[in-house]
Each structure stands twice: as structure tokens, then as C-alpha cells.
Prior knowledge:
- It is a single chain.
- By secondary structure, this protein is mainly α.
- It is built from 5 helices and no strands.
Amino acid sequence: MRATQSGPVDPLYVIFEQHLYHFQVEEIEHQAFIIAVLEDYFSYLRKLKISIPKSLEASIAQELWSQVHVLLMKRIYGCLTLRDYQKGLLATEKRKVKARYSRLKSKTQGIK
């Protein structure tokens, strides 16, 4: 899902990292985390005027759910909760992720 260092980063990955590094809910379950990531991603797509046909919506959501779930499991491996993972993050990592997310969001600011 993530591109090489020199290429662009997939918006889904940027949104995933933002939620992973800055999620504010105490002891959130993995399922609720994934739902929040997907809601943010679909909102991003709608702001870019990218529509998903109703007939494909469920299968696309299911595929994205699987991708985000795998990403989450790989990233927090060894941590019992998302909060445990967040405790080990450096402030510089959080700032980089927040800046990348801000750039992604700024692409949709002028779009209504």
C-alpha cells in the first residue's frame, strides 16, 4: 500500500498513520479503529469527487477493511492495545505523520 521513498504515498496509508499516531480514544477496539480510518478515507474520496458505484461499495469496503487490518496488525505487533503502541512513539514521528496528513487534507480544502 505504501509507495517507495521517492514516490507518492497512498492516501489510505497517510490516513491510517494519522489515526494510528493521533487517535484520542482510550482503549479503542481494533474494529472501531478500522471503521474510523475507512470513514475518513471515503470522506477524502468524496471530497475529490471520486464516486464508488453502489454495486461495488461493499466489496471495496471489505477489501480496504482487510488491508487496514493487516497494516494494523503488522504495526502494533507486540503491543496489546493501540494506546500501548502510541506510548512508544517519538514526537518527531508524530509530527511527520501529522504534516503528511495535513498536506493530504489541504488537497481537498478548495473542493466542495
